[in-house]
Design brief:
Blueprint (H helix, E strand, L loop, with lengths): L5 E6 L2 E6 L10 H16 L5 E5 L4 E3 L4 H4 L4 H6 L4 H8 L5 E5 L2 E3 L1 H8 L2 E5 L3 E3 L16 H6 L1 H10 L2 E3 H7 L4 E3 L4 H13 L3 H13 L5 H14 L4 H11 L10
Parallel strand pairs: 2-3, 3-5, 4-6, 5-7, 6-8, 7-10
Antiparallel strand pairs: 1-2, 8-9
Helix pairs in contact: 1-4, 10-11
The protein binds acetoacetyl-coenzyme A.
The site of acetoacetyl-coenzyme A has 22 residues, from helix 2, strand 6 and helix 5.
Length: about 260
């Protein structure tokens, strides 16, 4: 499918989606977020795709929601369209693993979009921030919620109240990103991580994603039960037999996603 604001490439088992509004530092407008939701759903449906990478440009992953699109809207406009509610749900309903590969600015909705992915690999040039407070509003796509769960109250308050940017090193120290790599190696490292994930059995990568995400939605005892039941359920797969047999036979598992 042809898109206007994103570029999608599927190579081997990895779909790479690149945000592509260079003149606006990849600011997220409704069109881009809808195209992104469609591309993610398409990748989810494509049997060839086993992992997805979401990335931007060297200067900006995304500099936030599109301020020019929002500036004239009224409360009623925002409320009736549930501004970015549906788009956010479409993105987070992706069932295959999604890696955010972030270089440059990930601000406002850009930081929130990165947090909607399953984990973030940051270039050493990455800058994260929730500067909405400077615009007379607050974050609207998870910047007060996901960020608080990721980095804790004190830092999340600091980011949301002062609007300051956090560099990649602080983001890693705070638990926002899983690793920091030299900017030149960002896509290579993201691709290596995606290839590693793509080697696994898809039922188990999808179950692992569901189980980790459950940790943010429920109590510890319910989450542990959910995890245990998924763990038990995977014993119904051929890939569990293959994975364990391969271990014992000291060979590489040949998973068939069955
Ligand atoms: N929306 C619309 N356009 C944006 C944009 C945004 N969020 N961020 C950058 N742009 C545009 C600029 O307007 C500019 O376009 P023009 O050349 O047509 O004027 C172009 O991108 C390049 O930007 P700058 O000239 O500003 O580049 P810079 O290098 O001087 O500064 C920056 C970079 C610090 C990221 C700066 O662009 C900036 O502060 N951007 C806004 C960041 C922001 O406030 N994000 C939060 C948005 S609100 C939100 O996200 C709500 C939510 O939670 C859902």
């Amino acid at each position: 499918m042809a898109y206007e604001t994103i570029i999608v490439e599927v190579e081997d088992h990895v779909a790479t989606i690149k945000l592509n509004r260079p003149d606006a530092l990849n600011a997220l407008n409704s069109h881009l977020l809808r195209e992104l939701g469609t591309a993610l759903a398409e990748a989810d449906r494509n049997d060839k795709v086993r992992c997805i990478i979401l990335t931007g440009s060297a200067k900006a992953f995304a500099a936030g929601a599109d301020i020019k699109e929002m500036s004239e809207k009224s409360y009623v406009d925002m409320f009736l369209s549930d501004f970015f509610g549906g788009e956010g749900r479409a993105i987070t309903s992706t069932r295959k693993p999604v890696i955010a590969a972030v270089a440059g600015y990930a601000l406002g909705g850009g930081c929130e979009l990165a947090m909607m992915c399953d984990f973030i690999i940051a270039a050493d040039t990455a800058k994260f921030g929730q500067p909405e407070i400077n615009l007379g509003v607050i974050a609207g796509l998870g910047g007060t919620q996901r960020l608080t769960r990721f980095i804790g109250k004190s830092k999340a308050m600091d980011m949301n109240l002062t609007g300051r940017f956090m560099d990649a090193e602080e983001a890693e120290r705070s638990g926002l990103v899983s690793r920091v790599v030299p900017a030149k190696k960002l896509m290579e490292e993201a691709r290596a991580a995606a290839d590693k994930i793509a080697e696994k059995s898809i039922p188990s990568t999808m179950a692992a994603k569901e189980a980790v995400n459950r940790a943010y939605e429920t109590t510890l005892s319910e989450g542990l039960l959910f995890e245990r039941r998924l763990f038990h359920a995977l014993f119904a797969t051929e890939d569990q037999k293959e994975g364990m047999a391969a271990f014992m036979e000291k060979r590489t598992a040949q998973f068939r996603d069955r």
